[in-house]
Design goal:
The structure holds 2 protein chains of 2 kinds. By secondary structure, chain A is an alpha+beta fold. Chain A has 24 helices and 17 strands. The chains are: A alpha+beta, B alpha+beta.
């Protein structure tokens, strides 16, 4: 295969037999789905939609895109793609740092694991080879200690992507942790690793930037994209909101517009939001601004809390995590939040699902659905429950199965703030309408990152839309979903879309890969990826009626200005969205699959 | 223009608050005031904010987000949006969120 940006080398690892086979990339698939998320979805699709996610038959793919590890700005991303044990959909989750770039430099476009190892195992990756090693001594250890041991064993300059105990214990929202604090957080990919006795990946590689196919074209494309980043109000290094305050810059904006779910989304604003905001954190406990491969933005915000029971030094207090353990749990204890995030990072658990599970448990306790007393904002109880969930002890065993099964077990499924089994992020669809249809139609369950409409509804990119207006949001969402499927497939950070447009992506892809591309053509690839995911989910059993929201957002009006009195007009937005997609009640028809050359 | 006792609270966040030395500043306005009037009055009260809130042409720079009672003025009438007595203005830096 004569395409730039790729190594044309993938490892298929059968953990049951220990066999490792190496193969090149399928050029047709690469041209149609690019790499990273898109190519991963194709591998998962080809493995079949009916597979049990926690069985040896499921596959888990670690993939990079053609731009990962290159000179392209913000190109440090790795995709983890599998069938989710939390949702039953195809899922993909992504992390930054350096492991993505190192996987490329180590000579791989991807690793595909299947089967189940007899004993705990980790994969050592170097110079185009994968070696399976015994991880018995690592099993039962948290992510932080595992990384420390493996870096002592293999050198400080390796990237370690690992499970904590939650993945081993098949907590259905367990995740993979990279380099201590970067999570491929959503969808329970860590439980899939645990089901295979796969503890970690260790990636060793010296910096070896792939050469663009067209170096002159690349210089211009790279310059244009970097200029857009440097001049962007959100991304500009040391000036933009994301660079100065991190993602938690959004806390005050979401609260101001009445779109911050609070107390398990019973409310749409949180009185003490400032205490947990990026602004307050910057003023009080911020100690560093770490970054990822080739990123000038440096949105990670390292903090050190005050001495005491919640003392911790960690990165990074992301908006969604701060919200999940903060407003959603009615908790304004600033230092408890980094502590809880770090605890989840060590156990390898998604902070968004965890915060929601805790909030749901608090509401269940308040309604006396359970005997356990869990008060709103009771931070000590929150810490205790995180331990119990990770270890599946007591009530934690129920909560570890996911928010929907747990709420059902408690006798009131309506208190689960989730879609398709995955808990909501930090945007209330009554105050930010685009996120309502976004959660409902996300192919991996409730998610803000499939189509980030807040870019338009809050930031004003590509143009400002009113968060309280539903008209036009279906069309807007489709554009974001198609565009941002490209970020995940090219191997660049989604935050680049605040500054870059499809022309920037097409120009950089064309220069690196050496295939002519324009904005329309690359958006069609994004659309194809989104439709393949949906087709997989349709075949897995998700059909008419699957795209919905918790009843709270549809029936209980917001009580906070300026969204006061609003509900989420989901039916109207779905009608508009399906028409824009060419879908029939959430199902991709055959003619659409053919038009997109999926079948 | 007739001055009345109309008072609007301007709520500042982040570096603006640091510069101003306090979060909430009360601004007395004439009848029929608009957002631009509030910012001009605010700059009179706190000249240190001038470079941040208004560009050299007297416009609000895109890196500043202004809300009237939680409504982004870009969804209203921009700097010409009316401000009524007891309204609250919030001024924030740009924002974005995410965890993968």
């Amino acid at each position: 295969m004569d395409l730039g940006g790729y190594v044309d080398h993938v490892a298929r690892i059968d953990l049951t037999t220990g066999d490792i086979k190496y193969e090149g990339l399928n050029e047709e698939n690469v041209r149609k789905y690019i790499g990273g998320r898109g190519l991963g979805v194709k591998y998962v699709f080809d493995n079949g939609p009916k597979v049990d996610p926690l069985s040896p038959d499921n596959i888990i793919c670690f993939l990079v895109g053609p731009l990962t590890g290159t000179d392209v700005s913000m190109s440090g991303r790795m995709a983890v793609v599998t069938k989710s044990p939390l949702t039953g959909t195809v899922t993909d989750s992504h992390h930054g740092g350096w492991s993505g770039a190192r996987l490329k430099w180590a000579g791989f476009d991807g690793l595909i694991f299947k089967g189940k190892a007899e004993q705990p195992t980790y994969a050592y990756i170097e110079a185009g080879k994968v070696e399976l090693k015994d991880a018995s001594d690592l099993w039962g250890k948290g992510a932080h200690e595992t990384i420390k041991i493996l870096q002592k064993r293999h050198g400080k300059d390796v990237s370690v992507v690992t499970l904590g105990q939650a993945g081993e214990n098949l907590v259905r929202y367990a995740c993979w942790m990279n380099e201590n604090d970067r999570a491929s957080g959503r969808g329970g990919t860590g439980a899939v690793g645990g089901s295979k006795n796969l503890k970690a990946l260790v990636i060793k590689a010296a910096k070896k930037l792939p050469k663009p196919k067209d170096r002159e074209a690349f210089k211009q494309a790279h310059k244009d994209a970097l200029k857009a980043i440097n001049e962007n109000d959100t991304l500009a290094p040391r000036k933009g909101g994301l660079s100065v305050y991190g993602t938690n810059s959004l806390m005050m904006a979401a609260n101001t517009i009445g779109a911050l779910p609070a107390k398990n989304a019973q409310f749409t604003s949180f009185e003490n939001a400032f205490n947990i905001s990026g602004h307050h954190i910057k003023e009080t406990i911020l100690v560093g601004d770490p970054t990822c491969h080739a990123c000038p933005v440096a949105c990670k915000k390292e903090v050190e809390t005050e001495p005491g029971k919640f003392h911790v030094r960690m990165e990074s207090v992301e908006y969604e995590s701060a919200w999940a353990f903060g407003a959603q749990c009615d908790n304004d204890n600033r230092d408890s939040i980094p502590f809880l995030i770090d605890l989840c990072n060590d156990y390898g658990i998604d902070t968004i699902d965890m915060g929601n599970v805790l909030a749901m448990t608090m509401e269940a306790s308040e309604k006396e659905l359970i005997r356990e007393r869990v008060g709103w904002g009771d931070v000590d109880k929150m810490v205790e429950l995180v331990h119990k969930i990770a270890k599946r002890e007591g009530i934690g065993d129920i909560l570890a199965n996911g928010i929907e099964p747990a709420a059902k077990a408690f006798g009131d499924p309506s208190i689960a703030m989730s879609v398709k089994g995955q808990a909501i992020p930090a945007y209330d669809p009554r105050g930010m309408k685009g996120m309502g249809v976004g959660y409902a139609t996300s192919n991996r369950g409730a998610c803000h990152l499939r189509g980030y409409t807040p870019a338009s509804e809050v930031v004003g990119v590509p143009e400002k839309t009113d968060p309280l207006a539903w008209k036009g949001k279906g069309k807007l969402l489709k554009l974001f979903q198609d565009f941002q499927a490209l970020s995940d497939s090219l191997g660049v950070c989604k935050f680049s879309t605040f500054a870059e447009n499809p022309d920037h992506y097409a120009a950089q892809y064309a220069a690196v890969v050496g295939v002519p591309m324009d904005a329309n053509a690359i958006l069609t690839i994004g659309e194809r990826i989104y439709n393949l995911e949906r087709h997989y989910n349709n075949l897995a059993g998700f059909g008419e009626g699957s795209d919905t929201l918790p009843a709270r957002f549809l029936n209980e009006p917001s009580q906070s200005e300026p969204s006061q009195g609003h509900i989420c007009e989901l039916d109207q937005m779905l009608e508009e969205y399906y028409a824009e997609r060419g879908w029939v009640k959430g199902v991709v028809p055959e003619k659409k699959l053919k038009a997109l050359q999926i079948i | 223009m007739k001055l009345t006792s109309n008072v609007t609270v301007v709520r500042l966040h982040a570096s603006l608050r640091e510069l101003a030395g306090q979060r909430d500043i009360e601004v007395t306005l004439p009848d029929g005031a608009i957002v631009r009037d509030v910012l001009n009055r605010l700059v009179e009260l706190r000249p240190v904010l001038a470079d941040r809130l208004l560009d050299e042409d007297g416009n609000i720079p895109p890196c500043i987000n202004v809300f009237v009672n939680g409504r982004d003025i870009r969804d209203l009438s921009g700097p010409d949006s009316p401000v009524m007595p007891d309204d609250e203005l919030t001024i924030l830096p740009p924002a974005a969120g995410g965890r993968a």
